[in-house]
Amino acid sequence: MIELRSVTKKYGDRSAVKDLTLRITGGEVCVLIGPSGCGKSTTIKLVNRMLEPDEGLIFVNGKNVAHSRPEDLRRRIGYVIQYIGLFPHMTVAENIAVVPKLLSWERQKIAARVDELLHMVGLDPGEYREKYPHELSGGEAQRIGVARALASDPPVLLMDEPFGAVDPLNREILQAEFIKIQKELKKTVLFVTHDLDEAIRIADRVALMRDGALVQHETPENILAHPLNRFVHDFVGTDRALKRLSRFSVSKAMREGYTVSVTEYPARVEHMLKRDSWIRFIWIVDERGMLRGWLDTRDFVAFGGSEEAVTELQGARFGVREDATLREALSRMLAEGVKLLPVLDRNGRVVGEIGLKDIEKVTEEVTDRWKD
Amino acid sequence: MAASALKFERVTLVGVGIGLLSFALPFLTLKPNRLVQGTSFYVWNVLLPHEITLLFVPWCLLILILLRYSKHPSIPLIAGATGNLAIIVLFLLVGQAAGRLMQFQEPFARVSIGFGCWGLVAGSYVLIINGFQKGAEYGILRYIAAFWGLLGLVVLLSTGYLNELSVLKEYAARKGRFLQEFGRHVRLSGIAVLLAVAIGTPLGVWSFRKKLLEKPIFFLINGIQTIPSLALFGLLIAPLSLLSFRFPFLREMGVKGIGTAPALIALTLYALLPITRNTFTSLSVIDPSILEAARGMGMNRMQLLLDIQLPLSLPIILSGIRVSMVQAIGNTTVAALIGAGGFGVFVFQGLGQAAFDLILLGTIPVILLAIFTDRLMQLLVVALTPLGLRSATESVR
Fold this sequence. Notes:
The structure holds two protein chains of two kinds.
Chain A: E1 2-11, E2 14-24, E3 29-33, H1 40-47, E4 55-60, E5 63-64, H2 70-75, E6 77-81, H3 92-96, H4 98-102, H5 107-120, H6 125-128, H7 138-149, E7 156-160, H8 168-185, E8 188-192, H9 196-202, E9 205-210, E10 213-218, H10 220-225, H11 230-236, H12 240-245, H13 250-253, E11 259-261, H14 267-275, E12 281-285, E13 291-296, H15 297-302, E14 310-312, E15 320-321, H16 326-336, E16 340-344, E17 350-355, H17 356-363
Parallel strand pairs in A: 3-8, 3-9, 6-7, 7-8, 11-12, 15-16
Antiparallel strand pairs in A: 1-2, 1-4, 4-5, 9-10, 12-13, 13-14, 16-17
Helix pairs in contact in A: 5-7
Chain B: H1 2-22, E1 28-31, E2 39-41, H2 43-46, H3 49-68, H4 75-102, E3 110-113, H5 115-134, H6 140-158, H7 166-173, H8 175-209, H9 211-226, H10 229-246, H11 248-253, H12 260-284, H13 288-296, H14 301-335, H15 344-353, H16 356-384, H17 387-396
Helix pairs in contact in B: 1-3, 1-5, 3-4, 4-5, 4-6, 5-6, 7-16, 8-9, 8-12, 8-14, 9-12, 10-12, 12-14, 13-14, 14-16, 15-16
């Protein structure tokens, strides 16, 4: 848990951070975001006392940071920065071992921890342990940076634009890995970025800052749906409804669909239509539940129940995975030119369907007004 | 590839050119005694035809090398090794010719090395250094190939083969003194550099940490550097004499207006600049994100300095020490003027007596000492560069 109480930091006459109060619940990722010069980087540096506040109190896990020596405090807080700052004269293993060594761990414990961390960030210890930073790619170096910050298993992690200097493709991979690791480790993370998509992707809560003050502190879904004022509205952009969709997974919005096995066709369809004549689309699956095609019941009537009514599909390309985001589902609908898609599980079996209406229900929560 | 081949050809061409032109210059000079003007002898005056041919052999080889295999990377090193051969052959024949000239002379007569000889040495030296620098990929082999001639020279010198040469006659007359001044020279310059390291490194760290101090510190040590060495030695005489006059305990410690004390002070002051500047620069060029990461991980100032800053800046600091050492070895020569001793003693004696060979007796060892120290320090810099930095450093070199 991290808590800032009425914190102010001044540079000369200018206040970089003004009377900031912020609480980050344990195990949550809080992303600090805002335009350049809004004080987000200053805020993160106040937490591990790289900078000292002029006013206010800061607590990490209930302890006032001002009561620890800065060195002791920092050894208990993981710190990742944009340009990583790997030590070029040390191997990967030595880089990761810096904090454990400062904490005087035993050598065997350190070695085991190094391997464990390399595994965690997806690098083979045997291959990477003895490499020097100049032999690493940007993405690999950033993984080592994260591993190094996690070395002593600190409960709190400060990340100052950690993926800012990585190319877009690698950034997405790193973000996905970070989300995965965080799900497992449940650290309390304060994360600074200026990339809204990144914030929406990884945050449990977004703290939007402007001119050193906190403007809105909310979940990404809510900040996109209900921007507090004109500034937030403009900052999150006109496509906020679309951005918001990426916070919801298909499984949350999907509903049950109607499936019929090829073997039971067309008798079962007739039976279903007799009971519920309003059914419009039916998914045709094989005996294992894999999607084979779809049926428009109006065609079924027109063709008199013949096989020709079924639109056959090759493979499972059609449809969306249940763990995809609504944004992806919408994009698929637009690409296929349909208003309804089957939802598939990891093995490609049909588990339901999702329509444009279901997505609209989520976007309808987005307000158009804000307090000013 | 073509450009580098062209470059190689040019340097070798210059070396071979200097060597070949030198054949037309006076080879040796014969003087009835060490003070009077002498007579010049050309190659064809003192050497027999087969000896002249022998003298030409290495240079013919070099011309062949130049014409035939100009593109292979090992060629500069082979040319350098041949340059060594040229030097050995040269001094073999110099000894021969000197003996021949001295045969019917009075004992006071002197045979000196002429411009032609120096030219041949200079030409070979160009080839050797070129080969050494371009043969970096051959590891230890390049040291052998580039400097094996040195071994030959040592053999020639120790067997007395060259004793008829004037420089060696001067040496023979001052054997004891030579070793004594050698020791003094090494001690003076060595202690001065040690003192400069002890003062200059902290000064560099200090001026890096306190930005306010940077300007005044560098103003001062840059200023010292602009004072001519002779003037600085002279300037120290008055205050030090006064000090030793006022405080007898200083006098007992050996502090006087002339001699070791002012020499050490002046040499140390000169040696400060490269060490302090390199320390400061090496600390300034460390990527700030490295320092931020180190501090953010909980290193205190001492750990930061010892675990991060110093290892990263060590190669550059050592390069500064290397420059200081070479510079100090040269400057120490001048210290002889205020009675501190060293090889300068022979230089100034020689100047006073207009005895060129005595000047050489002081100069040659200084040059050799400087080159030797320079090479040794280069090896040390490489050896002490952290592994992770080595590839980066090598690509710069």
